[in-house]
Amino acid sequence: MKNIRLIVPVIICLALGFYIIGCGNPSGGGGGGGGGASTITLTGTVTGAVATTSFGQHVMIQPPQVSKVIVFNCNGGYWVANVSGGKFTVEAESGKPIGLIFANSANKFIGYLTMGSSIDSVPLNLVDSSSKEIDLNNLLIGGGVATSEYDLIGAALTGATITTSDVSAMSFANSTFANLVKHPDADGNDQVDILEDPVKYYRPFIWYSVSGGTFEGLDLTPSVIGTSAEVNLHRFDLDIYDAGGSMPSSFIVTYPNSSTHEASYDDTNSSTRHLYNGEALTGIPANGTYEVAYNSSTLTFEVSDQANATQYIALAVPTITLTTTEGNIEKISWTYKLAGGTGDTIKPESLINDLIIQLNDTSDNNKQIYYSPNLPPSVHEHVLTETVSWDSISSMDMAYNDVFGNHIVVTWRKH
Hints:
By secondary structure, the chain is mainly β. The protein has helices spanning 152-158, 164-173, 175-182, 309-312, and strands at residues 13-15, 18-20, 39-52, 58-61, 68-73, 78-82, 87-93, 97-103, 109-114, 122-123, 133-142, 145-148, 200-215, 223-224, 230-242, 250-254, 260-264, 273-276, 281-282, 288-294, 297-303, 314-322, 329-338, 352-361, 368-371, 381-383, 393-402, 407-414. The strands form five sheets. Strands 3, 4, 5, 6, 7, 8, 9, 10, 11 and 12 form a ten-stranded mixed β-sheet that branches.
C-alpha cells in the first residue's frame, strides 16, 4: 500500500492592520510520511453504488472502479492509499477535519465521503484523541457522493460531545473546504490535483473581519450587536503548493461578478510554498465560481452562499478583569457564541483551532500594542504578561483560525 504525505508550512501574515494566525501544519518530514504528528487509521469497504431508475426506485449496482483513496486536511497534509477488492486502509492526522475522496486508476475523481448534516468532510476533531482507528464500514457511492454506515456526527450528538448549535456553526465554516472536497481538480485536467506529477495542492479559504459589539460605559463584557453579526470585510484567499516550483509572482483573480483583481504572494522567500492573499472587499463573499489565472492554467474554485455568515460565524466574547487599584487589565476571559439568533454558546473544540488577542491603543491610530500567544481551544482565559491600562484601549480583536482553515477577526470597541 502506498502512503504519501505533503507538509505545507505554517504561515503567519499581517494584513489590513489585523494579525492573522496561520493555519498550523502537522509536524515531521515530507514525502515518506512519519514525523511527530499523531495519526489515526481509517478503514472501509466500497460495497456498491446506488442508482435511481426512471420510476424513482433506488437500486444497487456494481461499485465504480475505485483504485485510490485520498485523505487531505487544511494544513496541506495528505495521504494516498490503494483500494483493493473495495477495501482500503489509510492514515490521517488526528484531531483535524479531513476530506476523503476516491479516484480511479487514471487519477480521475469518482466521489467524496460526506458525514451528513451538511458537513461534507470528516471532522476528526470530534473523535476522542485516544482513538487510533475508525472503521467506516460499508460505503455506497452514487452520483459522486459516498455515504458511510459510520455516523460520526450522530455519535458525537448522542454522546453530548457537540450540540445542534455546534453542527450549525461547523456546517457553515466547512462550506469552502467542502467545495474543495467536492471539486479536487481545480485545473480541470481530469486528474485529482494531489495525484498529479508533479504534485499540486490548492486550498481556498475565507478571511472575515467582523464587528462583534461594544463595551458600553463601565461594562467589562461587551454587548453583542443585534441579532446578527456585522461583516465588514472579507477576502478570498488561497494556499498553493506546486511541487513543480514554477510560481508566478502575481495572479489575476476573476470573481463571480466578472470583476478582476491582481494579487501576489505574501511569502516571497519560498520557491514552491506560498500563501496568496486576495483583495479585501466589503460585506460577505459573492457565491459562485472564482477563477485564478495560474501559469498556463485557469484554476476554478466554488464558494457557497455565505449569507448565513451573519448568523453562524462564532464570536469570541471577552470579559475584562481589572486590577483593583491601577485600573490595568489583569486578565481576559471569553466564551464562544454564535453571532446571530439566540447567541448559543458553542464548544470551541468543535470549531476553533487557535486564537490570539490584540489590544489597540487610542493614542496612536489604533496601534496594536499587545498580542497574546496563540491560544488553543481548551484555553478560556489569558493573564496579560505586560502592563496595559484599560483606559488606553480603544478596541480589541479576538482573532482565530477555525478548524477548516478560515480566518476570523472579531473586533470589540469601547463606546
